[in-house]
Amino acid sequence: MSHVIDRRLNGKNKSTVNRQRFLRRYRDHIKKAVEEAVSRRSITDMEHGEQISIPGRDIDEPVLHHGRGGRQTTVHPGNREFTTGEKIARPQGGGGGQGAGKASNSGEGMDEFVFQITQEEFLDFMFEDLELPNLVKRHLTGSDTFKHVRAGISNEGNPSRINIVRTLRSAHARRIALSGSSRARLKTAESELQRLRVEQPDNFGDIQALEEEIVKLRARIKRVPFLDTFDLKYNLLVKQPNPSSKAVMFCLMDVSGSMTQSTKDIAKRFFILLYLFLKRNYDKIDVVFIRHHTSAKEVDEEEFFYSRETGGTIVSSALKLMQEIMAARYPINEWNIYAAQASDGDNWNDDSPVCRDILIKQIMPFVQYFTYVEITPREHQALWYEYEQVAESFADTFAQQQLVSAGDIYPVFRELFQRRMTT
Amino acid sequence: MTATEKKRQPLSTGSEWTFELVRAYDREIGRIAERYALDTYPNQIEVITAEQMMDAYASVGMPLGYHHWSYGKHFLATEKGYKRGQMGLAYEIVINSDPCIAYLMEENTMCMQALVIAHACYGHNSFFKGNYLFRTWTDASSIIDYLVFAKQYIMQCEERHGIDAVEDLLDSCHALMNYGVDRYKRPYPISAEEERRRMKDREEHLQKQINDLWRTIPKSASKGGEQDNKRFPAEPQENILYFLEKHAPLLEPWQREVIRIVRKIAQYFYPQRQTQVMNEGWATFWHYTLMNDLYDEGLVTDGFMIEFLQSHTSVIYQPPFDSPYYSGINPYTLGFAMYRDIRRICEEPTEEDRRWFPDIAGSDWLSTLKFAMKSFKDESFILQYLSPKVIRDLKLFSILDDDQKDELYVPAIHDEPGYQQIRETLAAQYNLGNREPNVQIWSIDRRGDRSLTLRHQQHDRKPLGNSTDEVLKHLHRLWGFDIHLQIMQDDKLINTQHVPPKNEVEHDGDYPRLDLIMPPI
Question: Which of residues 29-48 of B touch A (CB under 8 A)?
Fold first, then answer.
């Protein structure tokens, strides 16, 4: 009589929707917890989720139940020393003693509801309010890709797109409209004829006249076509351009002697954050690492962050190299270009105006966004002030901020990419 | 000993299970169950993974349910507990349906699978089929269909009216779910097909009824007066959700339908809430009996038996009241002990048993046991069968906690003068009518401000819990107009709560009311 069925291969995530509903309902709580977590934990360990805790009373589902008080008699097991009629001091507070059985009916009695969210969800919450400026500005030109989107019903179109239901509906409406009065007259004429035939069968004149009218009306009704070209309705499709989904991110970093490993670590976290952020918005992302001291070099990630160099600093070398790479490999009609530069602010003094010129003339017009972070607790140096002029000319696409410690990264990051109200 | 050992031909020796073995064990257990003439629905045994078990767990045992955040909450809590190893998953989930669906978890050993088969597929299954509450109040053959219907309907509502609107409505319904059952009236069996067919008619009919109730146009002048002054409803209504479905003035037809769904599901679970001790005790009694028979026939090894006994013992462990693990009486323990004792009373009655149970002492144990299973719910089962021996074995005692006294009082313990009292107190403890506050709909103000008045009849001065306000807010959302909750002690009104809150105290009923209908100028 028994059937044994293997269900192990069935979907196991039956509760996913319910889980999402839960997260949706408590998104404010979760967001707050995520923000706290982001400022607390180091950005290199973004690979795991987060434990969220919500005050228990906030998520209790209310039901009508008995509270404490009144006269309650309960039965308990495991009596040791009590005898009938004995009086016992009422135990204070918790201490799993008397009345615990009742208490368990009225909820879990836990103060905090704690659960885990995944990394995906964590990042979603983290990036929620942020939006890269000018995110979908560039479209592919020439070989544009488009997608077709339905846009209602039209009177003209390709035969293969005929919407049969709408067509027949409008044909029906037209037939009613055009033949309505004739039908009404036909009806009265027919009943009149019926009456005459019964009541005055000899009145041939009137009967004949009526019969002629009926024939005429029938013919008129018949002349209204079942389907007219006027009735045809078509599904309308419009083309929408697909925004480019490719982005390249340039990471520029000073590796001169003045940059310590801890400064580089801070820079790294900033780059990682930017990378994670781009990854959520673009299908394909290239990352170009350029490091520089007195000369610039394109390197791989490992070398970028961990090899040690010494010597002076010429920032313009990195900007020049970036410009060359952009021109050679990343045509701006195909790529969204982002750049992030990190430095401790040191530069060879005569070089700073050069940097400004390269930025203003050769880089800024082509990039979506350029961020500069200065990682130093000290006073600003020449480069910062030159960059301020860049910021003035490109207020929408250029931003610079100062970082002091790892704890500053996220607030600064948020500020740089704060969702802008597009006008 | 050597003779029996020679006879032994166990079905399996290792702890790994295979589908063949599951079938073989099921066949043997089924064969032995037939010997006891256990009447069951056909079994559908489904093997699932731990994740799937958590899913099943989260939807409170329904094989499929509509979407709601509270199930997500259950899921997260279960998942967390399980991943940290704080709790094991339930060994089994069994669904009162025809065929009876039981879940086996992949991770379990062969012994555990056999235990679950005996417990769920023959124990619970025969209880579902036999017990009078289940027979009259639920319809095992149609529940799955109905749940599918409910899920689809609520999904459609979400698409049409938005997730938030449906979620708010469900929240409110869930808050009142325990007040959505008919306690004494037998409900119509539910059927998805029927529901779908009748839904349209019902919508129209309902709306008409409501319009009638809330008609503000005066009827013919002669009739008017006295009829309108009658209280409506004429009798207090305990099924609050039903009342809302039928009479709430502002609800859309789809909202009434959703209330109906929640109500029907509450009704489906109602027998389970009333037969916890009996149901679990019955299933435990049978897994214990069936597994021992397997052993006696030499079909399982000693190791298997030791593993079985180990988990059986932990299932029926009852921590004493002062243990940190104590959280009330373990229904498995109590039920198992009671069924075992009924069997003992039948087979080896003592003088005491003959005094307490003259009818069953010495009778045929199997038919007595089945009669007990079929004809009672927890409350009456305990009242009928809790024997002095069980009270002594569990060392039951009662505690009277009166908030007007400084000390707790022990009215009865497990001794001769105390047995009867313990039995009555414990039975009352399982009476849902006592466990849940007695709150009923008292009246609605049809011609005035349309407010709804509830009455809470206090029992032993037990107050309502602290989430009452929230529940009233939910009720307010469904009803659409003011809610008043009157707290009664016997016939005395001691307090009234209002939602939305009221500043000045009103004296209800002291003044003759005027109808608020103004003649048109």
Answer: 30, 40, 42-48
Dump pLDDT digits (tens) for B397-451. 999 988 888 888 999 999 999 999 999 999 999 988 788 888 999 998 888 888 9
Q: What is the number of domains present in chain A?
A: 3
On whether both A411 and A287 belong to a single domain, the answer is yes
Is the minimum CB–CB distance between B471 and chain A shorter than 8 Å? yes
Q: Which of B448, B451, B435, B449 is nearest to B486 (CA)?
A: B451
Of A296-300, B204-208, B453-457, give the range with the top mean pLDDT: B453-457
Question: For residues B282 and B492, what is the distance between their CA atoms, to the nearest angstrom?
Answer: 44
Residue A145 confidence (pLDDT): 58
- A31-36 own/partner pairs: CB under 8 Å, 24+ apart: A31/A125, A31/A128, A34/A122, A34/A125, A34/A126, A35/A126
Contact A76 B396 (CB under 8 A): yes
To the nearest whole Å, the CA of A213 is away from the closest chain B CA by 46
Preferred mutation among B238, B326, B409 to probe A, highest tally of A CBs within 10 A: B326
Whether residues A400 and A263 fall in one domain: yes
What residue ranges do the domains of chain B occupy? 2-131+275-309, 143-210+232-274, 316-433, 437-499
- Cα–Cα distances (Å) from B442 to B239, B283, B455, B499, in that order, read 11, 41, 6, 16
Chain B CB contacts of A64 under 8 Å are 176, 178-179, 436-437, 439, 464-465, 467-468, 471
Q: What's the mean pLDDT in B388-394?
A: 94
For residues A217 and A270, membership in a common domain is answered with no
pLDDT of residue A12: 66
Alpha helical stretches, state H, B138-239: 143-161, 163-175, 192-213, 221-228
Q: Specify the pLDDT at position B348.
A: 92
Same structural domain, A190 and A52: no
Q: Taking CA atoms, what residue in A is nearest to B39?
A: A1
Contacting A residues, span 178-207, partner chain B, CB-CB under 8 Å: none
CA distance linking residue B235 with residue B232, whole number of Å:
8
The per-residue pLDDT for range B92-140, each reduced to its tens digit, is 778 888 888 888 888 888 998 999 899 999 999 999 999 998 888 788 8
Lowest mean pLDDT across A269-273, B339-343, B472-476: A269-273
Both A321 and A193 in a single domain? no
Residue with tokens 């389970």: B272
Chain B residues lying within 8 Å of A97, measured CB to CB: 321-322
Which residues of chain A fall short of a pLDDT of 50? 43-44, 94-110, 132-143, 419-423
* pLDDT classification of B354: cutoffs 50, 70, 90: very high
| C-alpha to C-alpha distance for A289 and A275, rounded to whole angstroms | 12
Asked whether the beta carbons of B11 and B269 are under 8 A apart, the reply is no
Neighbours of B58 (CB within 10 A): 24
CB pairs under 8 A between A and B: 290
B396 contacts A90? CB cut-off 8 A: no
CB contact under 8 A, B178 and A3: no
The C-alpha atoms of residue A336 and residue B176 are separated, in whole angstroms, by 55
**A236, A255, A288 - which closes a domain:** A236
The parent domain of residue A22 ranges over 17-56+111-128
* Any domain includes A96: no
Same domain, A209 and A251: no
C-alpha–C-alpha distance, residues B351 and B344, integer Å: 13
B435 has a chain A CB within 8 A of its CB: yes
Query: Does a structural domain hold residue A77?
Result: no
User: Average per-residue pLDDT in chain B?
Assistant: 84
* Alpha carbons B109 and B14: distance in angstroms, whole number: 9
- Closest Cα in chain B, distance from residue A155 (Å): 29
- Classify strands A50-55 and A112-117 as parallel, antiparallel or unpaired: antiparallel
Interatomic CA distance for residues A24 and A29, integer angstroms: 10
